[in-house]
Amino acid sequence: MPHATQLYQHVPGTRWPIVYSPRYNITFMGLEKLHPFDAGKWGKVIGFLKVVLCCRYHHRNPACHLSPQLPGAEEGVEAPSDPDRRNHNGGGFHHCSSDRGGGFCAYADITLAIKFLFERVEGISRATIVDLDAHQGNGHERDFMGDQRVYIMDVYNRHIYPGDRFAKQAIRRKVELEWGTEDDEYLDKVERNLKRALQEHPPDVMVYNAGTDILEGDRLGGLSISPQGIVKRDELVFRVARGCRVPILMVTSGGYQKRTARIIADSILNLYDLGLIGPEAASVSAQNSDTPLLL
Question: Helix, strand, coil: what percent of the chain each, to 5?
């Protein structure tokens, strides 16, 4: 049985599968605005979701602040009683390893999450990390070097930070992209390689690092994926995981443009509308859908 821990709390079915706390948003007398990393984007994502849900379910003014019960609208973090399809509206600090930080990453949350699951949750002994941030995830790669329980798939721009050759040895499925890679090529490579990854190493849980720094115009990512392409990417990852009956935890990772918060919110709404997260997720077919993307 799982060890006793406050991380396991009952989450009503009326709540969305989103983990968030206002404490995620970092401020320092306004100086945070000078940094390329938007330390307040997580609160903006929740804000966008609240506005949309207000309009959708309450038919009130878009400026209203009420919404259906949304995890994290109150102080504190709630987690599922079992590994469910869940979005962690933060995290993804994939350049930090257990012994040092890197990039804009101060703690190794992906490593900590997986090791916690291995040690404390019965039935979880194999994990897959699907890292789709524009940068190589060298932190968790260094941490799980030689650990056959953890399969790492990493899709990244080969020409940018960190270029960690040692860490690349831990990648079981490596997809290196060129400058300016666009939607069609990108989505095709992600889908084909993800399906193969899950066939090669059927996991008990997947951690999906869903960086939005792949967005066109991101100077640190160097790729050219459209907003619609990002929404479609998240959808196909959840569909493939659903098809293999793999619980998935999505973390939002990097993204260095102000518009990424809205894109993340659009993606979450798309996943919910398609039944890939939330109470209807269990009944959704793994087949591709012709449902138009939320723009």
Answer: 35, 15, 55
Q: Give the 3-state secondary structure of residue 78.
A: coil
Residue 66's pLDDT band, with cuts at 50, 70 and 90, is: very low
Catalytic residues: 95
Residue 28 one-letter amino acid? F
35-65 pLDDT, tens digit each: 566 667 888 888 888 888 777 766 554 444 3
3-state secondary structure of 225: strand
**And the tokens for 272?**
């919910």
Contact between 285 and 240 (Cβ < 8 Å): no
Residue whose tokens read 């849900």 = 53
pLDDT at 286: 39
Who wins on pLDDT, 105 or 116? 116
- Burial of residue 44 (CB within 10 Å: 0-12, 13-18, 19+) is middle
Alpha helix (H) residue ranges in 74-226: 109-120, 138-143, 165-168, 183-200
Question: Quick one: which of 188, 150, 189 has its CA closest to 172?
Answer: 150
The secondary element (H helix, E strand) that includes residue 177 is strand 173-177
Mind listing the pLDDT tens digit for each residue in 209-236? 999 999 999 999 999 999 999 999 999 9
Pairwise CA distance, residues 129 & 109, whole Å: 12
Cβ-Cβ contacts under 8 Å for 278 (sequence gap 6 or more):
16, 17, 272
Q: Measuring CA to CA, which residue among 226, 208, 224 is closest to residue 152?
A: 208
Q: Interhelix angle for 227-243 vs 260-273, to 10°?
A: 40
